[in-house]
Every structure is written in C-alpha cells, then in structure tokens.
Amino acid sequence: MFNLIKMNLYRMIHATSTKVLFIVALAISILGFGLEKFILDDPFNLFSAMEGVTIMGSVSLSSSVSMLLASGMLIVISIFIVIFANAESKCGFNKNIIGITKNRWKHSLARWIAAMIGVLVISSVAYLVQLGLQALFLNAFVMDSAVLLLKYLGLTYLCIAAYSAVFFFFTTLFKSSAGGIVTAMIIVTGVLGLIETLLDFGFMKIFTNATHVPSEFLLSSVVPNFAANMGDTNVLKLVVILGCYIVAALGASMFIEQRRDVA
Questions:
Q1: b/e 52-74 (16+ beta carbons within 10 angstroms → b)
Q2: What counts of helices (H) and strands (E) characterise the chain?
Q3: Which of 223, 170, 214 has its CA nearest to residue 195?
Q4: Crossing angle for the helix pair 61-68 and 146-174, nearest 10 degrees?
Q5: What pLDDT, in 10s, does the model give residues 15-66?
Q6: Which of 1, 24, 150, 215 could cross-link to 196 by cystine, CB 3.0-4.6 Å?
Q7: Which residues share a beta bridge with 255?
C-alpha cells in the first residue's frame, strides 16, 4: 500500500494538471485577499451604507479559511480530485497493471490517499499565502486562539475530505472525467438546493411530526453551517456525518474498482 501511495504521489507531482491547478489555487487566494482589501478599505465609498461592512470589520484566522473556500477553492479541489482519480484509466494504466492485480481496491484507496495529500498541500499553501497577505496588509486582521484555529482547520479539512470522497466516487462510477466534473459542479455550485427543498417538503408531507429533515444530513447543507465556535455536540454530529460520507463513498469506490472489468 505504501508503495502504491508513493507511486501515485510521483505521478501527481509530475502531472501538468497538478501544476496548473496549483497556480490557479494561488491566484484564487491572492484575488480573495484583493477583494477583502478592497471591501475593507472601501476607497470609493461603495460599501459605507451597507450592513456587510460591519460584518467584515475584522478578518480572523478562522474566517479567512471560510473566505478561501467560498472564493472558489472547493471548485479547484473538485477538478483536481476528478482529474487525478481518472488519470490511470485515461492513460491505460488500469488495463496494463491493475488488470493483473488481485486486490484492485488497494489501487483505489491508495489513489484517494495520495489525492488527499495533494489537496492538503495545495490548500495549505494557498491558505498560508492568503494569511500572510492579510497579516501584512490588513489592519483589521486579528489572531484567533491556537485551539480554535486547530479545531477549525481540522474540521475544514474533514469537510474537504468528505467532498473529495464523493467526487472520487462519482468519477470512479462514471469512469470519466467529464462525468465526475459535471457531478462535482452540481454539488459545489448549490444546484442541488431546489432538489433538497423538494425532498424536505415531500418528507414533511409523509412524516408530519418529524423533528429532522433529509437536508440536515446532506453535505451541501451540513458544511456551510458549521462554525469554529460551535458546541461539542454539534462538532460530534458534524464529524460523524462527514465520516459516514467518507467511509460510504470511498468504500463504494473500492467496491466498484474491485468488481469492474478492466477495459
């Protein structure tokens, strides 16, 4: 397994797509900082009458993570996961090597672990770049406590891992980068919102006394609602839900890889 992970990391490092997406991630972090700087400084008094300027009165370590993800970093991560997940099938590696392997699911697991290492590096560098710019050039920048920051970063990475596992599953299922990217964009851009609303409406019609609705357990609803200062009970609920998504999506991906005929 360790050798498989090393092999996938080697392919990732030398792939052109990885370098392109890394540059895009850095550009997003710099542009995100530029937008924050523009809004906070407000040189043309465009936001002086808006309530939002009080909300953005300070930029903290934890809030900068949210800004980074909201600025499009999750889209970059989804494209990275999809391209990397389908690279072996596209280049013929599956037919030449995996086809003669008995435990093919190990290749799928190693590929996902390597992808998550890549996501960790890309997102960390982008975050540190944005953080450095904020600390240097934003007077409104404030420091969070170390415990709060570590808690927030850990939950954020777990959220990214859950999304990545889902993207990885759909790419494996469709055996196509196009199918994986389309599915990822539907999930990331919030297109599922209408479907979630209809699902909740139908669920409440059937179970009139229900205390929970299905959307409360969907990634697109759970992830945007978490905060660094949430209580331990809510943190535990979030971790359990994200863990279930990771185990289910990754397990399904490995099952498909094991059972599918290599072509």
A1: eeeebeebbbbbbbbbbbebbbb
A2: 12, 2
A3: 214
A4: 20
A5: 888 898 899 888 888 888 887 778 777 666 665 554 444 444 455 555 555 6
A6: 215
A7: none
Among candidate residues 119, 195, 196, the one with its CA nearest the CA of residue 163: 119
Helix (H) or strand (E) holding 146: helix 146-174
Rounded Cα–Cα distance for residues 221 and 164 (Å): 16
- Give the pLDDT score at 64: 53
Which candidate, 178, 184, 176, places its Cα nearest to that of 263?
176
Contact 115, 201 (CB under 8 A): no
In contact, 79 and 189? CB cutoff 8 Å: no
Q: For residues 184 and 167, what is the distance between their CA atoms, to the nearest angstrom?
A: 6
Name the residue type at position 28. I
Taking only the tens place, the pLDDT of each residue in 60-94 is: 555 555 655 655 788 888 888 888 888 766 555 55
Structure token pair of residue 96: 């030449």
Residues paired with residue 60 on neighbouring β-strands, in sequence order:
142
In this predicted model, what pLDDT tens digit does every residue of 92-109 receive, in sequence order? 555 555 555 677 788 888
Do 15 and 114 meet the contact criterion of CB atoms below 8 Å apart? no
Tens digit of each residue's pLDDT (9 = 90 or more) over 193-242: 777 788 888 888 888 777 778 777 787 777 766 665 677 788 888 889 99
**pLDDT score at 37:** 79
**Domain ranges (residues) in the chain:** 2-189+226-259
Contact between 26 and 129 under an 8 Å Cβ cutoff? The reply is yes
**Which of 212, 220, 152 has the alpha carbon at shortest distance from 191?**
220
